[in-house]
Write a structure and sequence with these properties.
With 463 residues, the chain is an alpha/beta fold. The chain contains 16 helices and 17 strands. The N and C termini lie far apart (59 Å).
């Protein structure tokens, strides 16, 4: 039986809604009904309950995405399923599966080792607190980084505390004594063993991460791999990713060469040498680096989050590994899967053209200002005027709010958001914060991680 959908809207959006549905050529029948209000975004479920007297034989009711209120209660009251759709009318085809279906981002293959680079200088409580934060951002293993010529007397206590808090733990050092202590204390992984320090693996149960004697010395890595295989012990291989202009391209080739020579070994990519040592936004770097992992079947990365510009690196790596897993699984490009790594730009930043905005403005009959953006710039309008500019300061003298501080403040905030969105190519929706993807899901880069711990999806100070 064909579904019959009832679309509820306001008078200003009715024409556009009918046009979008007609062009969509849906496989359901539908009725468009406007509830006697102008702006669909102001609709509430209580208002619908009061004003909707006929459901027109609908099997489902579709509400605007910004409709506020308890949808489940309204559905129970009307005896019909009630669903919120997209915030923008133009996005309805996607909502009904006409373009792209949402990918399953619950799965991934890459484990994230998140390094606490200054562990010897932190207390045990601070180490556990930082580890909780990194786990909140997506880390699977907490890596304790040792520092050259720096004592780490509480190494064993730190490992024990992390294990007690149900963390997988790795220890990162080139000092044999540190590695031996860490392994005996119960570290799950040891970074890093070379050919001449493989004896440590015989003393402890930890899984070693193997590196070459020198970055380019793959023969030494081959010999270390052969020894571990002879002993039938698990291990991970890290050919070492070098910074840009200090061997970066050669190291990418090295990873490819190791994978060609050892198609079945577990491998690790240390992404921090790129994300930390390149002053550029790290979301794109993580996407490319996790793409290399996907192509070469590298299932472990070592990530750091030290520099201010890299303050989202672990969360970005978490998102990137999920996107790349979904793309590989479906044999598609990593495109139109999830927008969380697109912090600065969006695929469709301007849903309306200037002509469409002017057509909407012509229907406004009240003095309240609306703000929208198009490729042409910022547009602010009400029943009395329509103004466009690329700089909000050009608009202020024309708005007549010099003696209304609250209104001026509100319009200033919204126009500032609109300007940022227009400059970057992001979508602006009045009364909503800009969407920065996964860049704002973790604590702000100025936060002292030593004094914060995760609580649900937010970070709160510890008592």
């Amino acid at each position: 039986m064909t579904e019959h959908l009832l679309f509820l809207t306001g008078s200003l959006a009715e024409k556009q809604l009918r046009s979008v549905l007609e062009k969509m050529q849906p496989d359901f029948t539908y009725t468009v009904h406007q509830l006697g209000l102008k702006v669909a975004a102001l609709m509430t479920t209580q208002m619908i309950e009061r004003r909707l007297h006929d459901t027109f034989g609908a099997t489902k009711i579709i509400l605007p995405g910004r409709c506020r209120g308890d949808v489940n209660a309204l559905s129970e009251k009307l005896g019909i399923p009630v669903i919120r759709a997209t915030e923008e009318v133009k996005d309805l085809p996607t909502f009904f599966g006409k373009k792209v279906q949402r990918a399953d981002l619950t799965r991934y293959s890459v484990k994230i080792f998140a390094e606490i680079t200054d562990a010897p200088n932190l207390s045990v409580d601070d180490i556990v607190n930082r580890a909780q934060y990194y786990r909140h951002c997506g880390a699977n293993v907490i890596d304790l980084g040792c520092l050259p010529s720096t004592p780490f007397p509480h190494l064993e206590d730190a490992i024990n505390a992390l294990k007690k808090a149900d963390f997988l733990v790795s220890l990162d050092s080139l000092d044999s004594n540190d590695l031996l202590r860490g392994g005996k204390a119960g570290a799950d992984y040891l970074l890093s063993l070379q050919e001449d320090s493989l004896w440590i693996a015989d003393e402890v149960a930890s899984i070693p991460i193997l590196i070459p004697q020198k970055h380019e010395d793959l023969a030494s890595l081959d010999r270390a791999i052969a020894q571990m295989q002879t002993k039938n012990r698990p291990f991970i291989v890290d050919p070492i990713l070098d910074p840009i202009h200090f061997g970066f391209t050669a190291s990418i080739v090295r990873y490819h060469d190791v994978r060609r020579r050892h198609p079945d070994v577990e491998m690790m990519l240390g992404v921090g040498n790129i994300t930390e040592l390149t002053h550029a936004d790290t979301a794109g770097m993580n996407a490319l680096l996790l793409g290399i992992c996907s192509e070469l079947n590298i299932n472990h990365i070592l990530a750091t989050q030290v520099s201010g510009h890299a303050s989202r690196a672990i969360k970005e790596a978490d998102v990137a590994r999920r996107i790349l897993f979904a793309a590989k699984e479906h044999d598609t490009l990593p495109k139109h899967i999830d927008p969380s790594l697109m912090s600065l730009h969006e695929t469709a930043p301007f849903p309306y053209s200037l002509d469409e905005i002017e057509e909407l403005a012509a229907q406004i009959k009240d003095p309240s200002y609306r703000i929208q953006t198009s490729q042409a710039g910022l547009h602010i309008f009400n029943r009395d005027s329509f103004h466009s500019a690329s700089d909000p300061f050009e608009l202020y003298p024309k708005l007549g709010v010099e003696h209304d501080g609250g209104h001026a403040f509100y319009l200033g905030v919204e126009l500032a958001r609109a300007e940022i969105a227009w400059q970057l190519g992001k979508r602006f929706t009045q009364d909503q914060a800009l969407n920065w993807g996964c860049a704002v899901e973790c604590a702000d880069s100025t936060v002292d991680l030593h004094t914060f711990k995760p609580a649900g999806t937010t970070l709160q100070k510890t008592p």
